[in-house]
Amino acid sequence: MRVLVPLAAVTAAAVLFGVAAEPDKGPAEEVRADALAAFVKGQKDKVVVVDFWATWCAPCVKNFPHLVGLHEKYSDKGLVCVGVSLDKQGPAEEYSRDKVSAFLKGKKAGFKNVILADPDADEGKLAEAFGKGAGIPFVVVFDKAGRRAWDSESSRTKDADLAARVEAVVKEQLAR
Predict the structure, then answer these.
(1) What residues does 172 pair with on adjacent strands?
(2) CA–CA separation, 70 vs 54, rounded Å?
(3) Whole-model pTM above 0.85?
(4) What are phi and psi of 118, to 5 degrees?
(5) Which of helix, strand or coil describes residue 90?
(6) Which of 57, 173, 71 lies closest to 113, judged by CA?
(7) How many C-beta atoms lie closer than 10 Å to residue 103's C-beta?
(8) What is the pLDDT of residues 65-107, one digit of tens each?
């Protein structure tokens, strides 16, 4: 006797066990800072790049394709990329989960992408776990031991130099 399992149940199980369909399909998941920090911490022996961005941030949109390129170039060498949308920090009437998902799909962002569910409430946790201050774009790189190796704010990297600097840090961390 065959048992048909509803697609929703299969999808839920896949998400729970870390197996998912292609990451650039469907809406980005909304998460809190604790879940994001736990995900990053769980990437054992991997270099992790976390990019905080928003669709309403012109420098973020300009730099986002570089994150996609890093993923394509280095994911098979031990790099994990995570895109974190801060679109909910913008005007509430302009936030759209579908808009964020369409942006990600259009950029072919085939890595983990999330929308921070409550950026204002999680401000302190973001500062503690990621070193994030007030501005975006903000990029942080974690080494293979899960320690913060570099971030764009403390290094005072200008937006125009961000892509090249992040790639240099990623190369350095992967070589260790």
Answers:
(1) none
(2) 19
(3) no
(4) -145, 75
(5) coil
(6) 71
(7) 21
(8) 999 999 999 999 999 999 999 999 988 888 999 999 999 999 9
Token pair for 169: 């840090």
The residue written with tokens 């130099």 in the block is 161
Give all domains of the chain, ordered by start, each with its CATH number: 22-175 (3.40.30.10)
Please list the alpha-helical segments (H only) found in the chain.
7-16, 33-41, 58-74, 97-106, 123-130, 162-175
Give the tens place of pLDDT for each residue, 10-47. 333 333 334 333 333 445 899 999 999 999 999 999 99
CA distance to 63, 102, 109, 129, 159, per residue, from 123 (Å): 23, 26, 25, 10, 22
Give one word for 83, left, alpha or beta, with left for phi > 0 and alpha for psi -120 to 50.
beta
